[in-house]
Amino acid sequence: MTTQDLTVAQAVAYAVLYALETEAGASWKTWAHIWLKGDDRSATSAHQATGMAETQAARHAAMAARLLAEACQFQTEAAMLTSENRNALWQMDQYDQRQSQCLHEVTESLHASTSASPPAPDCPRDNSLRARVVREF
User: Fold this and answer.
1) What is the DSSP code (8-state) at residue 122?
2) Which H or E run contains 106?
3) Residue 126: CB partners within 8 Å, gap ≥ 6?
4) Phi and psi angles of residue 24, each rounded to the nearest 5 degrees, phi first
5) pLDDT single digits (tens) 64-121
6) For residues 91 and 117, what is the distance between their CA atoms, to the nearest angstrom?
7) What average pLDDT score do residues 59-64 get?
8) Which of 13, 16, 38, 73 is least surrounded, with the fewest CB atoms within 10 Å of its CB?
């Protein structure tokens, strides 16, 4: 098995475990054990661990842990934005449906009002209203 057979999180854990064998710094080792248990896998703590590392392997492992945490955060934010976008699209669809329904109701209302009392064919009031509608709307 190679590190290419591992997920990204598994590869970072491998790097942390590997660095534990050569790292002498107690504070870095404490961070590594906390990270491996899953108690704190934040980018902030990994960034701090990078500064505590005495060996290059430990620095690289902590840097990989920080980048993994940042990637996970970006993935979470992308999922949230996608969710918000879907919600916004759903709301726009609801508004569009309501607008169509309102226009349909207006059409029915106009049809009902003209059917109940149709205007006289050359009624001056009807002609005036038509001219105003054409001019203003």
Assistant:
1) T
2) helix 56-116
3) 119, 120
4) -100, -20
5) 999 999 998 888 888 887 788 777 777 778 877 877 776 667 666 666 655 655 556 6
6) 39
7) 94
8) 38
- DSSP state, 38? T
**Which residue do the tokens 């309102």 mark?**
102
Determine the pLDDT at residue 50.
95
Quote the tokens at residue 55: 């060996």
The predicted model gives 28-55 an average pLDDT of 97
Q: What size, in residues, is the chain?
A: 137
Amino acid (1-letter code) at residue 71: A
Q: Are the beta carbons of 55 and 22 closer than 8 angstroms?
A: yes
For the chain, the first-to-last Cα distance in angstroms comes to: 74
- 97 CB-near residues (< 8 Å, 6+ apart): none
Question: What does DSSP assign to residue 39?
Answer: S
For residue 15, give every residue at least 6 positions away whose Cβ sits within 8 Å of its Cβ, in sequence order, or none.
57, 60, 61, 64, 65
One-letter amino acid for residue 58 of the chain: A
